[in-house]
Amino acid sequence: MNRIAKLLKTKYPIVQGPMAGITLGEFASTVSEAGGLGVIASAGLSPEKLKEEIEKVKNRTDKPFAVNIPIYQPGSEKNLETALKADVGIIYTSAGSPEKYTERVKESGAKVIHKVSRLKEGLKAEKAGVDAVVAMGFEAGGIIGRSGVTSFCLIPELADNLSIPVVAAGGIADERGFAAALILGAEGVEIGTRLLATKECPVPESIKQAILKATCDSTMVIESPVVMRALKPELSGDSENPALGGQVSGLIKEILTVEEVIRKIAEGLNKAKF
Amino acid sequence: MNRIAKLLKTKYPIVQGPMAGITLGEFASTVSEAGGLGVIASAGLSPEKLKEEIEKVKNRTDKPFAVNIPIYQPGSEKNLETALKADVGIIYTSAGSPEKYTERVKESGAKVIHKVSRLKEGLKAEKAGVDAVVAMGFEAGGIIGRSGVTSFCLIPELADNLSIPVVAAGGIADERGFAAALILGAEGVEIGTRLLATKECPVPESIKQAILKATCDSTMVIESPVVMRALKPELSGDSENPALGGQVSGLIKEILTVEEVIRKIAEGLNKAKF
Q: Top enzyme class of this protein (chains A, B) (predicted)?
């Protein structure tokens, strides 16, 4: 068992990418039940609503799950307190300074992982005391930071320079990506876009179909106000609200269940060869 | 032996990235002698000068080598004819339509590989009849195309959709990158930036030192007129002529000989684990 599976206490070292408005209690519990780490996205939720979503997970599974706290979001402090009070074992911070909440989380006894997109942020997160970092490569969907560093370079750079374990995010949709990330030095992976194209995912069918049609160059980078990667509007059919998604969309060719996605990635690992 | 080593007839499926003004006859022959495919960059050379550089390689090694022809460059057609007349076995086209020269190269009996940065270009190159494609990820140094697709996504996308073999370029400096590229579906790799920081490389010492100091986010994308990745000027100390280099600079921590670089990457493969 590697350090990430041990830290998260999950069957597989696979973390579900938090997606605002999408990965709430129902979806997160499905991922946790499948052996990954389900993550409730707290962005946009009131503390009351977050509490409800946490209860939903607890009613559906006794497996570990996390709550994502995007630090820059208004209300993030109240949501953090809500999660800690509800005894959520893992807090996943992102989009802000790791120093802001790390001490508070650790003092409560919970674990904290933090998302970074360049070495400097990784070193800062380690110094702040986080238990693991998520390395967000430029190819990822959603908020990607400004560094532009890709998974191929960011994973080994963080693995070489940090003592805490690294989870790779961006570019991973199947067992090949999982194996490549581990070879480059990650001890776990985060799966985002691949989980959008699942039967259980509560996004409009048009977004799932857009992912199936996409090639890897069907995404674009937007700034509003943070830097994000989304599907090009000609694909998702909505230019006002572009659907967030990663370059890895081009590798996704069928809609599966969450359980099938997680199992294929985790158990296919042994088929990956060089 | 995989299809790329067979096609190139080299000891290892490792191609040296062509770098204008740097990888001429002397450097290319050193790479070929070390078991990789040395590549003379013809950009900026007159046909007479190119002929001289080809002779230099032939005088120094009997191993296979290639000439890179950036298609968009003025004079590329004359340089192509010079290379074919000198019986160079492998032509490496880039930066332009693969249709322009492929038929001519094939008709001469030489092999042709072509650099692409998105699926559409890969399909076009295969249709044009090239023997292999080089998948140039966004993290690579030098000319990178406009797609922005990273190695993590581009390699498997091309491998899944083409019948011809794929060589991965961008993000590879050690055996971990080599193994990850093979796992993602490549059959060979191209090494550029890692070969800049070698004892034999005829670039100013300041550029080699800049690479050693770099982190993976020490590069920037410039357009003039093609899209290129270069080291940030604060690193290379020259804001008028930025030194081209890839994100992988951040993983390069010592100056080695060309032979050491190639051997470490090729023979370290078996140490790579997941």
A: oxidoreductase
